Amino acid sequence: MIQGANSFDWNHMRAFLATAEEGSLSAAARKLGLTQPTLGRQVTALEAELNLMLFERVGRNLVLTQAGEELLQHVRAMNAAADQVALVASGQSQAVEGVVRITASDVFSAYLLPPIMKELRARAPQLEIDIVAANDIRDLMRREADIAIRHVRPDQPDLIARLVREARGYFYASSDYLDRKGRPETLDDLRDHDFISFGNVTQMLGFLHPLGFPISENNFRIGSESGVVSWELVRQGFGIAAMADDVAAATPDVERVLPDLAPVVFPVWLTTHRELHTSRRIRLVFDLLAEFLAQKPEAKFSD
């Protein structure tokens, strides 16, 4: 029997869960709004309570031991149950209902938002979600949307922004295309490949040339202003294009091109207006989006 199992401190469990999911004390402390020493003491206290070593250090990261892996499954279930209890209890006095408008790029709207919509429907079935798929920046101050997912931080003082992740982009093509055209092994091999444009080709070349891509407008024979259409062209074997790795993870039959090429790193900002502090429906959606978008690609689509 685990010592202390009947008298654990839930704060210690939350510290363990955050550290396991974030992979480091510093990231977990930021997530929970604690100092790193405080969070470290909570994790150490839990190990003492259970008489188990839950983490071991590998380089700069903390890796779960076998005991930690087994405990993590139960703590996640406990955390989900606690969230559900809190939601049900608070819903007795203030129902979570009404419309919440979320704006994101068309690609994010099509590939990343549907999985979190399932969770939202389960937690708050009376919510109405309107997804505004748009590649321009919608004005939250004019209530064109309640929550925005964007790659730039807004500068309006009345908006709240949270950096949920430094996302990564790579270059992809369909397996069918690569079987036909060959799998490039060097940047120079890209001269003979087709590329899919996402809008203005000149702007895309201005981005790709500093990365060492020896290509020109002649490599772009097809594309679309719509990200969804351009990505579908990639999936159907028309050529190569850059894409966020979590979108690629949700797309069957695409492969990373030049897998050793360094990723393109870009921020993912979640933004809303200050009604976040007074509207339970917006707060619920905002927090769930933040939790989901912060996950690694393989975790988003593990089911």
From TrEMBL:
The UniProt similarity line reads: Belongs to the LysR transcriptional regulatory family.
Gene name linked to the record:
dmlR_7
Native species = Thalassovita autumnalis
The chain positions of domain HTH lysR-type read: 8-65
- SUPFAM superfamilies from the UniProt entry: Periplasmic binding protein-like II (SSF53850), Winged helix' DNA-binding domain (SSF46785)
Q: Which GO terms describe its molecular function?
A: DNA-binding transcription factor activity; sequence-specific DNA binding
| Cited InterPro entries | LysR-type_TF_proteobact-type (IPR058163), LysR_HTH_N (IPR000847), LysR_subst-bd (IPR005119), WH-like_DNA-bd_sf (IPR036388), WH_DNA-bd_sf (IPR036390)
> What is this protein's record name?
D-malate degradation protein R
- List keywords of the entry alphabetically: DNA-binding, Transcription, Transcription regulation
Q: Which residues form a coiled coil?
A: none
